[in-house]
């Protein structure tokens, strides 16, 4: 059974009170992390979700900003949420920091809760989830909690050499933008990314984009994907609003 649940995000000790039932895109969350089902049936009244995959420095964040501007999605960067968690001195902060320093993957439970909390605090119905999932375990945890699969998955495919160059020039003061951590991140990416790519390819959801070229050249490959989806997104938003009105 579907039911609206008090938020998983409330499991995070410092989290603010839930904003669910406030925005037009309030959505239903699967009751627990422990659902046994592997493939979860998507709900019509679910937000429109795009996963944005790609190695470190492949241009995920840069392209997300362009998609937000052109198509009005809300950008949810998993990495930014984790860094915010570190900065806020939360209970998980030190574990997250050491995990990021080592180029490893933060436990799904933490990341999924942060993403859901961010989505639930938004009035929007269409989201870009940037830099997530980073493992099959991430993917399963998210899909079980939200009770749906993403609608679209973008994969920015970029040669390692180019990714390393971009990360080393990023200049955002990140603890993981150094050559030692980048090597580890690339190893982790190479080990864990391909099963996710294969899974969504089989499900007909994956768009592989060659991420070499200028930012604008790459966006011209991204734009038609979202242009083609426009009516589907509009319909989803309509269903979500009707659902909320019926619920209230
Ligand atoms: N197509 C591109 N060509 C050259 N540099 C880029 C391109 N796209 C992004 N960058 C730069 O590369 C760095 C990494 O980009 P970013 O969007 O942060 O990647 P990711 O989120 O995948 O790690 C940033 O400094 C960004 O300005
Ligand atoms: O779902 C996620 C997203 C990020 N990270 C951690 O946060 C780091 C930075 O992620 P971000 O997406 O910001 O890096 P980018 O790929 O954009 O360089 C990663 O290397 C991981 O250690 C994670 O564990 N799970
Ligand atoms: Mg990024």
TrEMBL record:
GO molecular function: ATP binding; nucleobase-containing compound kinase activity; phosphotransferase activity, phosphate group as acceptor
Keyword Iron-sulfur applies: no
Binding-site residues for ATP, renumbered to this chain: 57-62, 170, 213
Keywords for this protein: ATP-binding, Cytoplasm, Kinase, Nucleotide-binding, Nucleus, Pyrimidine biosynthesis, Transferase
Gene Ontology cellular component list: cytoplasm; nucleus
Binding locations of CMP: 138
Sequence positions that bind a ribonucleoside 5'-phosphate: 83, 104-106, 131-134, 174, 185
Coiled-coil parts of chain: none
Entry cofactors: Mg(2+)
Name of protein: UMP-CMP kinase
Organism in which the protein naturally occurs: Rubus argutus (Southern blackberry)
